Amino acid sequence: MAAISIVRSALAVALGMVATAVRADGDLVRFPEGYDKGVHYATVERGGIREELFTSREAIEAARSGRPLPSGTVITMEDHRDGKLFRYVVMEKRAGWGTRHPPELRNGEWEFQAFHPDQTVNRNETVTRCMTCHKSREHQDFLFTLDRMKAAQ
Predict the structure, then answer these.
(1) Which of 10, 44, 54, 56 falls 20 to 30 Å from 85 in CA-CA distance?
(2) How far apart are CA 130 and CA 45, in angstroms?
(3) What is the model's pLDDT at position 1?
(4) CA–CA distance from 143 to each of 16, 39, 110, 112, 117 (Å)?
(5) Given this model, what pLDDT does residue 130 score?
(6) Residues in domain Cytochrome P460 (predicted)?
């Protein structure tokens, strides 16, 4: 019985560490100043939510040519709800990033961060939801909008 309690305690501690590791804590991804001067490559509408997606010209060119998106790629999503800016979500790819996450969550070298409309880190939001969903797009560099990047002007 004591062994079961020890295992349960260890599991609880490990799960707590994973949850802490994927909280929006601002330790890697920073708000990308001037993101809106990059390429606006997609608008996604779902119900009352409108998402505006921006990235760099370098990322667009890599996607068009079929190359992997380069280290340093930043994708910024403006999340609008009921006609107002609700939040920003940012994906950033850097060589060596992503290793702090367990394999079932890891999105290659991408990290995610959520920001309030005033561009401060939203410390109450976890990015596990982002990672879990984007994991299904591993064959497309973890992106749902890779085809739109390829078609962007």
Answers:
(1) 56
(2) 17
(3) 55
(4) 28, 16, 10, 12, 23
(5) 93
(6) 33-145
Q: Give the residue among 102, 91, 87, 96 at the shortest CA–CA distance from 141.
A: 91
Please state which CATH number belongs to domain 2-151: 3.50.70
| pLDDT confidence of residue 26 | 46
- pLDDT, averaged in runs of 10, over the chain (153 residues): 47 41 64 97 95 98 97 98 97 95 95 97 91 96 97 92
The pLDDT value recorded for residue 4 is 52
Query: What is the C-alpha to C-alpha distance for residues 26 and 40, in angstroms, rounded to an integer?
Result: 24
Residue 17 vs residues 20, 57, 99: alpha-carbon distances, Å = 5, 37, 14
Query: Both tokens of residue 52?
Result: 């505006």
Return the bridge partners of 115, or none: 88, 121
Handedness of CA 112, 118, 124, 129 (dihedral sign): negative
b/e burial code for range 72-93 (CB count within 10 A of at least 16 → b): ebbbbbbbbeeeeeeebbbbbb
